[in-house]
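Translate structure to sequence.
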């Protein structure tokens, strides 16, 4: 079941900014939408600010040493969130690297583990494919104005979101799980149904049944949430990293 208000991590509001419902943010987005020329100019300035952050600050230069940070700037795939039918849970059963069993990835308190089934095919990945399917961190959503009022079953095109579009960047939010479900970006289902939806059920059917999770709840990205939902890893010193890395252990060989 979705987390209740009393179970929410109180660090939510301190660790990330929430722009999607901020009145000032909405005014800026409305202005950009109504003035195409200003939208182009501000997008250019926003892109320049992002690159300057990486190139002119010590923090940015250190970040560029990380391959993931470099990919964020130069690889569109790294800037797109989890795709439709991806699964997330605090403790997640997902395929292992070899595709022969399920394994468990556990996240720290207030975080989630995620697995993206569609990513390799959608982006035609050639290297580090499995590593680019696994996610772990705090839930975030880009609640774009273009899709905010859509029903959860209406597919958001993967190429719609652009972090270099200032109007999109100002839609960033870090909602509690129940709010993301209420807004239609995630929904609750069972492991069995989730694996059927992605065409992986027969391959992992015995693993799902023998591990006893076939009918256990898991959360999936809806068509509306396609590319807009993600899991942000902890960075900086505001939140202490877990003492141990997320647990990954085989649970059953297929």
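Result:
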């Amino acid at each position: 079941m979705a987390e209740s208000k009393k179970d929410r991590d109180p660090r939510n509001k301190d660790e990330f900014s929430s722009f999607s419902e901020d009145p000032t943010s909405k005014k800026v987005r409305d202005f950009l939408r109504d003035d195409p020329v200003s939208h182009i100019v501000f997008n250019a300035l926003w892109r320049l600010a992002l690159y300057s952050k990486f190139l002119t600050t010590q923090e940015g230069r250190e970040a560029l040493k990380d391959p993931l940070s470099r990919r964020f700037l130069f690889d569109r795939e790294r800037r797109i969130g989890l795709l439709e039918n991806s699964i997330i849970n605090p403790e997640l059963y997902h395929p292992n690297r070899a595709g022969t069993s399920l394994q468990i990835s556990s996240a720290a308190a207030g975080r989630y583990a995620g697995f993206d089934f569609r990513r390799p095919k959608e982006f035609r990945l050639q290297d580090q494919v499995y590593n680019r399917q696994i996610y772990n961190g705090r839930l975030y959503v880009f609640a774009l104005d273009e899709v905010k009022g859509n029903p959860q079953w209406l597919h958001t095109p993967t190429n719609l979101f652009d972090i270099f579009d200032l109007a999109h960047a100002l839609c960033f939010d870090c909602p509690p799980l129940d709010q993301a479900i209420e807004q239609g970006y995630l929904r609750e289902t069972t492991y069995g149904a989730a694996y059927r939806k992605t065409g992986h059920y027969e391959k992992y059917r015995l693993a799902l049944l023998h591990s006893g999770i076939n009918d256990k709840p898991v959360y999936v990205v809806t068509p509306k949430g396609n590319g807009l939902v993600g899991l942000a890893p902890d960075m900086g010193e505001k939140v202490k990293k877990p003492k141990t890395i997320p647990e990954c252990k085989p649970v059953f060989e297929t």
